[in-house]
Amino acid sequence: MPIPAPADLGALEGLEAGFRAPVAMIDGKAFKAGKAYRDSKLCNMIMNREFHRRYHETTGVVFNTIYPGCVAETALFRHAPKLFQRIFPWFQKTITKGYVSQPLAGDRVAQVVADPAFAVSGVHWSWGNRQRDDAMAFAQALSAKANNEARAARLWELSAAMVGLEGRL
């Protein structure tokens, strides 16, 4: 079973280098699938907070992120060993109790989008890792990594430059 690697963006060396070979990760290190997933989630949270800081007050647009639970049966694991693809959903259902079905995850995303109770900008909504029938969403505090404004500004600048939008956002 793959060992989870924690999200670590380093000093954004890989992004700064343009992800040119042999760079595969945002921190400039060798590719690790689980870490790439976690890094991308952290980047999404950071960019969401940056969108909130830059645009919420002037536009009224609500910016937030969501963790609906662990959706363990998707194409996300298509390159993982077959044994992992079989064991992971079972593990999430029976051991961690963090499993949610794709329809339930979709319902939760729709709820965050459509329900006025979720119209709080700059929030990360979660149902936590323990799924119950009566589970309620809550605004989950973000880590210092996700709330670092200097890193957010740098990630924003490098991302804009990477896609040719520097100075336009």
Brief sketch in words of this structure:
This protein has 169 residues and is mainly alpha-helical. The chain contains six helices and three strands.
Polypeptide structure, described:
The protein is 46% helix and 7% strand. The protein is built from 6 helices and 3 strands. Strands 1-2-3 form a 3-stranded mixed beta sheet, covered by helices on one side. α2 packs across α6 (149-162). The longest helix has 27 residues, at 33-59. The radius of gyration is 17 Å and the shape is flat. The model has no long low-confidence stretch (mean pLDDT 90).
What structural class do the secondary elements suggest?
mainly alpha
Count, helices: 6
Largest beta-sheet characterization: 3 strands, mixed
What is the residue-mean pLDDT, rounded to a whole number?
Answer: 90
Task: Give the termini distance in whole angstroms.
Answer: 42 Å
Instruction: Give the tally of β-strands.
Output: 3
Gross geometry: flat
